[in-house]
C-alpha cells in the first residue's frame, strides 16, 4: 500500500519555481483539508471489508468563522460526504470563538500557540 505524502510549502515552491505570488497565499484548502482527506482512503479500504458497513469518520478542525467569509455561513457540525464506503462528518468546535477567546485559552494551555 502506497502512503500518501503530505505537501509542504518548500515542495510547492520547488514545483512552482518560486514563492507563491502576492494575493495567492499558501494557506488554502489543498494545503490543509486535502491532507486530512488523503488519509481516509487507505483506512476505508482496510476497515470497510472488516466492518461490513460504511466507515464513519469525524473530521475535527480548529477553523474559526472570523478567518473566512465562507466559514461564517458553515455550520459547526455537518455531513460532508456519504457513500457506500464512508460517512464523513465535519465538526468545527471553535468555529464561533473570538480571537480574544483563543488567546485566553492559550494562556492556560500547555499547547504552544503558532
Q: Which secondary structure elements does this structure contain, and how are they paired or packed?
A:
Layout: H1 9-16, H2 29-38, H3 40-51, E1 55-60, H4 69-73, E2 77-82, E3 86-91, H5 99-107
Parallel strand pairs: 1-3
Antiparallel strand pairs: 2-3
- Count of DSSP E strands? 3
Give the strand line-up of the largest sheet: 1-3-2
> What proportion strand?
15-25%
Question: What is the number of domains?
Answer: 2
Largest sheet: 3 strands, mixed
User: What structural class results from the helix and strand content?
Assistant: alpha+beta
Helical run tally: 5
Tell me roughly what share of residues is in helical segments.
25-40%
Q: Which regions are unreliable across 5 or more consecutive residues at pLDDT < 50?
A: none
Q: Please provide the ordered H/E string of secondary-structure elements.
A: HHHEHEEH
Task: Please describe what this structure looks like.
The protein has 114 residues and is an alpha+beta fold. It has two domains: 1-38, no CATH class; 54-109, no CATH class. The chain contains five helices and three strands. It has helices at 9-16, 29-38, 40-51, 69-73, 99-107, and strands at residues 55-60, 77-82, 86-91. A three-stranded mixed sheet has the order 1-3-2. A hairpin with a 3-residue loop joins β2 and β3 (86-91). The chain starts with 8 loop residues before the first helix and ends in a 7-residue tail after the last helix. 3% of the residues are buried. The mean pLDDT is 82.
